Every structure is written in structure tokens, then in C-alpha cells.
Amino acid sequence: MPLAIAGSSGGMKGIFVQGVLNAFECGKLVADAYAGSSASALPVISAAAGLCSFVGIQYWQRVLDLLHQPGRDLSWVMRQVTNEWFDDEDPFRKKLFKARAPRLFIAANFVRTMQAADQTQGKNARHLGRQLLVQAAHKCHEWVDNNLQLQLFDTQAKDDQLRLTPDNLSDVSFASTCMIQWELSAWVNGKPYVDASYTCVCPVNEMVAFGYTQVIAIATDPGPLYRDIFADQEIPSILKAVPIHIVRPDMNLKEIGVDYTTCTQEGLIAAFAHGLQKGNEFLATWAGDAPRQGIVRLAL
Length: 300
Prior knowledge:
By secondary structure, the chain is an alpha/beta fold. It has helices at residues 14-26, 41-48, 52-55, 58-67, 74-85, 92-96, 114-121, 125-137, 142-147, 169-177, 204-209, 265-293; strands spanning 3-7, 33-37, 103-111, 148-154, 186-188, 191-194, 214-218, 238-239, 242-247. α7 (114-121) crosses α8.
């Protein structure tokens, strides 16, 4: 019964996803595939590489430190951090692309019309990005439907343009996180991309479509986990007969100091610890269910 683990978007709330995955790694829960959207890109990369303990809170601490520098917006911060973590000497390349490594998927949105490319990659991008956030609150996604196409970059993709490689890992990771209103724009293989969450907050549907028969989804907010930022399609607990196990925080992480674009030092530590807690709680339940479900990849 092949297992996929999917992480959701959430900006700085992605530290919760990191905590959950760290708990899974310590508990020897290894998936056949990992999939990430936006802020969960780095956490699932670290999980697929078996390097959650190496990443831990360090990546997020670096993001927080850079956010505190004057005159630096989140686009500059994420571009800087992805460049630092995925340089020529990073340890991920040796682990992610070796034989028998878990399959890795990173979601991003291809900007598929020339007009939209001008809008998203030009000087008016900030205005458009803010408009779309307002439209999302009213569940109006006409612009997104007409101009964006969800694509999954994949370490095992047959299409060269969608294959995740050591050479494009940094660009794809940045593209997955790049909101339209950000100052910097994202390009992969010479094509314009924007943040995955406009069409895919958490790539659960995609994992089911790829044939995974158990999916663990890690959310960054309590309550329903929605398909995209328009919040008009909830991800169910069973999708096409595939069980979807959702790990959620107990509270809005904003209550402990972590919001989408802001974070305190204390909040960072608390949200990571809460992720560890919820991951361990899930492991206890999963371990009890594993023999009955025939899952053999958990070794405690």
C-alpha cells in the first residue's frame, strides 16, 4: 500500500510541517513519496532526503533572521534562503536523486498566457497579487482558472520540463513559494511561475491521482483543509476510496506568534515543538493501525 505524505502551504506556519516531519523521521515513518506546496517545499525535501534532523529549526531561523533586516521583503528572503540551502555543496542532492530514494513532488503554478506573464512578472504584479487575495476571500477564481496551470515537478517525471533535478531544485522551490505580489518573480526552465497555493494548498488530490493508496496530509491551520486559497473545496477524509489522514495544529498558530508572513522567535520554537507533538501523537495512532492496514514501512 504505497504511502504519500503531502505538506500544505502557510508561509511561516510551515514550521509546523517541519516539526511533524521531524517527528516522523525520528519515529522511522518513511513514505514512498513526499509532495509539497509553497511553504512546505523545504520540509518535504528534507523528509525525502532523510535530513529532517539536519534541517530542524535552522532553515526557519535563517528565514526569520533575514526577515528582520530592513528593506527586505519575503521574496528576497526566500530567494536568498533557497540559494543558500541548495547550493553546489548541499547534502540534499546526494540523497534525493539516488536510486530507491522516495519520490519527490513540488507543486508550482505555470503562468500559461502571455498577458498573465506580463501581469505577474512585471511592475504591476503587486497590485494584481493583492486583488487576487481579495477575490479569494469572495471565492472568485476566474483569473486563476484562465491564466494558471498547476504543475508538479517530480524526481521521476518522464517529461524533461517537469523533472526535478539538482540543477533546478532551487528555482522550483522558490517558484512554489512565490506569491504574485512579491517583488521578485520566479522562473523555471525559462518559464514564469507563481506560488502553488493559488490552485493547490496541499497536493493530496495529485497523490491520489498518482496511485498512492494512503495519504498523510499535514495542514498548517486547524479546521478544514481546503484545496486552494479560495477555500471552496474541502479535502475529504476519503478520496476515491483512498484514506486521507490529516495532521493539524490544535490552534491557529498566530496565537503563539506565527502567522503567514510574520513570526516571533518564541513562536518559531513553540510552533516547531507543537509540530513534533502532533507528529508523535499521530505516530502512536498510526502504529496501532499499521498491522490491520497492511502497512509495513513503519519501524518503531
